[in-house]
């Protein structure tokens, strides 16, 4: 019937044994992180109170091209990896496109997303250093779930500060994390000074990601053997997520394919940075010249409408400063925006590559994203996460363009996860209650006004 | 590290191209279905108003050993199959057992379970006959979701009668079905005479599976081009589900393995019958002698405490009579019983095999099932459906016995699906609010008193 199979799984022998560090091939490096007190470049040692040593080293290491994946992590990866590279035959047929559409599906694990790839690495290195506990924050809950799984596996205590409004609206996410023994606390809480101060001002607040980060960091630095971890934005996270791109590229090689265009959704950049890594390497080293497209929500358009500037990584303004595309750390996406991809900034690595013209970016509106999600579900029988559906929307638009032009492009996109815990948003879409929101220039200016004065 | 991979996926070439019809190798056939009006064996033609012709034929065909899977169905299977055969290395290590534990994982599709294997077949044959719509009922929602996907794929209208209490308690399941364009109606409804009558008596009723079946059948027989379909119990369903066992056996052959014991959860028998089919063939034909174990909830113990008798397949008493292990069609499991496996009877094929001594059965209590589910989730990073966790419980108990005896048994169990839509039950477990319920003999006697007088 079909020569190329619907799904290709690498064998265990074919799985990557090293991560790929994209910075090693970048002609210009991202600007260094700055200590917000001194405005001097942060050193590896300065990161030790926050990150365990191996991760602090990975965060700063811009020269080692390939980094061995420790065997313990490889073993854990084998429990849910390799993830399949899938040829979307049915979607192609439905769109009547001459394009070939491939997607790398990262949702076949209980966290429901690619987040587990870095959660395992971060938990492993913490354990290796003899730490006993981790803290983090979670909004939509994918990262919290992934880290809960990783901590259960390596025997680390985990405290997750979950934004109170999500904690109340998504009780199922909380129950999943509890299945993996995580201590899930609605933020703001009375377990930290930061939380108590906010509660004193406004006992009925629904909380914010910024507040949850502040609580998680306070808890980590005030607890013996504890560190704070983060699921996106950081260089180390992109390094771990390179497994997505390395597997994808290997699988496409086996099929005799190479993508003309690579598409990924972008919030903080963890999935996109991982997916594109080895293809961007080809581009940076002149071996190939695929188009690389970041897709972001029109309601949180950090690449397409943000500023390339130094900013805090958190709304609480306690982290080092990073130069990145940002809407300002005070920017909050509209409440009507479903799912993740709510981050005000973008990975410094991806920001630099975009700034230097190696990447494109598009912003898509929410209802069109859900149109794509439901079409995709019907033809490919996977219910996508709203985040992932941003990439589906852009991939479908590319394929529809190919129908018009007759081009037989090979499209690769990243399907980061499943939408089982996002049915409230799907229901709103089915009921016709979903709306679009695009911030005005004046809305954005408020965020830009809060940018720290660095230069 | 390990010679046998964590996960084995067959290639598309290795996927079964025929289903296996277990009846062809049974030394004695199950007793025939009876027309409840005449108490005479039902004929194939008598089934035509309810089932489309190909399915009616499959229902009655006890002699054709292998039945070609139509190419259209094979193509659809390739969208989510083959499912992996997974070696539970981590669970083995955690249990310190010398046993080798394998499981066949059927949850990697949006329906979250094995139900899609038969839903696709039933939708395909309906489409082939020129029908335009199907009806069904759903309780927990896995079957309704699977059939919604299949109908969206083949372009059939689908009406799902969902028990009202589930409709209200599981809005997310409804939203998933709506994503696949299903018309989901809370039952009882005012769309049928059956529903209106029940509502007239008790406007506030939460509904029952029996009532939903009655409405779905009424809707099907009163609508041009429409048929009613069912996701378990039937011979045709076991035939379609044989793909689970065929893939499992093939994968184990590739690994040079053969199970000493095969374990599956059992509600109506769709998963168990499919998983064991080719192994039971070996047993019936003297080629091998594996133990085969059905696991049922202690709160709905049709095999371990039911009667082998003629009974209606539905609580509304409109279906033909089947001889099977049954608790009586009026039996309702306790409200505290989470998840599926609530059916009063058991597949006539499995009932006959159990009656004739080819199978064992165990009943397990709910809290012990959730103990197993959470342990499994931690070590294997898959959150199991409560139904599937019954098999996990029994597999773990076997492995623990092996630790005591030192036996290096090879255990195979079926992991039918994921528990993402069962977090209410998991939360009850985490909160210590989950209880066990075992019906008394007097409770069961009430169900037996309602059995039809046939002999």
Automatic annotation (TrEMBL), chains A, B:
Broad class of enzyme this protein falls into: lyase
Enzyme Commission identifier(s): 4.2.1.20
One Pfam match: PALP
Keyword list, A-Z: Amino-acid biosynthesis, Aromatic amino acid biosynthesis, Lyase, Pyridoxal phosphate, Tryptophan biosynthesis
Pathway: Amino-acid biosynthesis; L-tryptophan biosynthesis; L-tryptophan from chorismate: step 5/5
Tryptophan synthase beta chain-like PALP domain: residues covered: 80-417
Cofactor section: pyridoxal 5'-phosphate
Catalytic activity: (1S,2R)-1-C-(indol-3-yl)glycerol 3-phosphate + L-serine = D-glyceraldehyde 3-phosphate + L-tryptophan + H2O
Domain of life of the organism encoding this protein: Bacteria
GO cellular component terms, A-Z: cytoplasm
Gene Ontology molecular functions: L-serine hydro-lyase (adding indole, L-tryptophan-forming) activity; pyridoxal phosphate binding; tryptophan synthase activity
Family note: Belongs to the TrpB family.
Subunit structure, interactors included: Tetramer of two alpha and two beta chains.
Annotated function: The beta subunit is responsible for the synthesis of L-tryptophan from indole and L-serine.
Name of this protein: tryptophan synthase
Natural source organism: Zongyangia hominis
């Amino acid at each position: 019937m079909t020569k190329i199979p619907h799904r290709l799984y690498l064998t265990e022998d074919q799985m990557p044994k090293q991560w790929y560090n994209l910075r090693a091939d970048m002609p210009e490096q991202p600007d260094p992180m700055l200590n917000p007190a001194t405005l001097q470049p942060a050193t590896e040692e300065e990161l030790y109170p926050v990150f365990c040593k191996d991760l602090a080293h990975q965060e700063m290491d811009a020269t080692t091209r390939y980094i061995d994946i420790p065997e313990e992590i490889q073993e854990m990866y084998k429990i849910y990896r390799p993830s399949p590279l899938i040829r979307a035959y049915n979607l192609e047929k439905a769109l009547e496109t001459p394009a070939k559409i491939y997607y790398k599906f990262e949702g076949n694990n209980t966290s429901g997303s690619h987040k587990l790839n870095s959660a395992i690495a971060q938990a492993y290195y913490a354990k290796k250093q003899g730490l006993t506990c981790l803290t983090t924050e979670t909004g939509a809950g994918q990262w919290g779930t992934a880290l809960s799984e990783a901590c259960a596996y390596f025997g680390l205590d985990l405290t997750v500060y979950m934004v109170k409004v999500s904690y109340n609206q998504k009780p199922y996410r909380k129950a999943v994390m509890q299945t993996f023994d995580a201590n899930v606390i609605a933020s703001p809480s009375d377990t930290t000074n930061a939380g108590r101060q906010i509660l004193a001002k406004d006992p009925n607040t629904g909380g914010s990601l910024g507040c949850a980060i502040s609580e998680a960091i306070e808890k980590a630095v005030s607890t013996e053997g504890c560190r704070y971890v983060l699921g996106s934005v950081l260089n180390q996270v992109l390094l771990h997520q390179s497994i997505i791109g390395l597997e994808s590229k290997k699988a496409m090689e086996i099929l005799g394919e190479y993508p003309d265009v690579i598409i990924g959704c972008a919030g903080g950049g963890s999935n996109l940075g991982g997916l594109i890594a080895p293809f961007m390497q080809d581009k940076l080293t002149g071996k190939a010249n695929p188009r690389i497209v970041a897709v972001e929500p029109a309601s949180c358009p950090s690449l397409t409408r943000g500023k390339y500037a130094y900013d805090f990584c958190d709304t609480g303004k306690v982290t080092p400063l990073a130069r990145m595309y940002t809407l300002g750390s005070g920017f909050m996406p509209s409440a009507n925006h479903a799912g993740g991809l709510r981050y005000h900034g973008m990975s410094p690595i991806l920001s630099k590559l975009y700034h230097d013209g190696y990447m494109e970016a598009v912003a898509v509106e929410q209802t069109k994203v859900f149109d794509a999600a439901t079409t995709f579900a019907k033809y490919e029988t996977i219910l996508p996460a709203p985040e992932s559906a941003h990439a589906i929307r852009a991939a479908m638009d590319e394929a529809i363009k190919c129908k018009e032009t007759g081009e037989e492009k090979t499209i690769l996109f990243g399907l980061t996860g499943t939408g089982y815990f996002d049915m409230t948003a799907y229901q709103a879409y089915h009921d016709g209650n979903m709306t679009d929101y695009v911030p005005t220039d004046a809305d954005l200016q408020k965020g830009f006004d809060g940018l720290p004065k660095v230069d």
